[in-house]
Write a structure and sequence with these properties.
With 188 residues, the chain is mainly beta. 2% of the residues lie in helices and 52% in strands. It is found in: Cytoplasm.
Length: 188
């Protein structure tokens, strides 16, 4: 349990019958008239939905302890992603739903942060940017290079993104894992 006065960004609260909500932002408000309160923006840990919620100042709220550990992606086993704890070498099978969009950027050997609550995997978080190899892309047309256009490219994970015309098959590029955008070439 924690008081609303102890709220901070990233703290996970257990509200509404056990749902987990992460504090995105908070603001202590002391109006000229009436009691003080705390205005918060909360994000549901599982669904990603955000809501605004107001608490009276000093009210006790239940907190949840989320265990985050860095694990290495080993391989796919049917619909499950198998991660290995690099300290204990224990393997953890994670459902595709918990991996979410991170599946578009996971390659064997990548390290990801796996968040668990009471032994259940909540989500998998990748670094903000990863380096991936372009598996296939059409060659750029000679006259198009100056327009700054883009073309589709299939990454080694099978995910397709838009890349500049000068990118060729086999090149390593940097990709933003939050948006799926091309960030730049990786110089070898």
């Amino acid at each position: 349990m924690a008081s609303t006065n102890d709220l901070k960004n990233g703290l996970v609260l257990k509200l509404d019958g056990g749902q987990l909500w992460s504090v995105v932002e908070f603001q202590h408000v002391k109006p000229g008239k009436g009691p003080a309160f705390v205005r918060t923006k909360l994000k549901n840990v599982l669904s990603g939905k955000t809501v605004d919620k107001t608490f009276n100042a000093g009210v006790k709220v239940e907190t949840a302890t989320i265990d985050r550990s860095d694990m290495q992606f080993s391989y796919m086993d049917g619909e499950y992603f198998v991660f290995m704890d690099m300290d204990t070498y224990d393997q953890l099978m994670v459902d595709r739903k918990a991996v979410g969009d991170a599946a578009n950027f996971l390659v064997e050997g990548f390290t990801a942060s796996v968040a668990q609550y009471e032994g259940e995997v909540l989500y998998v978080e990748l670094p903000a940017a990863v380096e991936l190899t372009v598996q296939h892309t059409e060659p750029g047309v000679q006259g198009d290079r100056s327009t700054g256009g883009s073309k589709p490219a299939t990454l080694e994970t099978g995910y397709e993104i838009g890349v500049p015309l000068f990118i060729t098959t086999g090149e390593k590029i940097k990709v933003d894992t939050r948006t799926g955008d091309y960030l730049g070439r990786v110089n070898s």
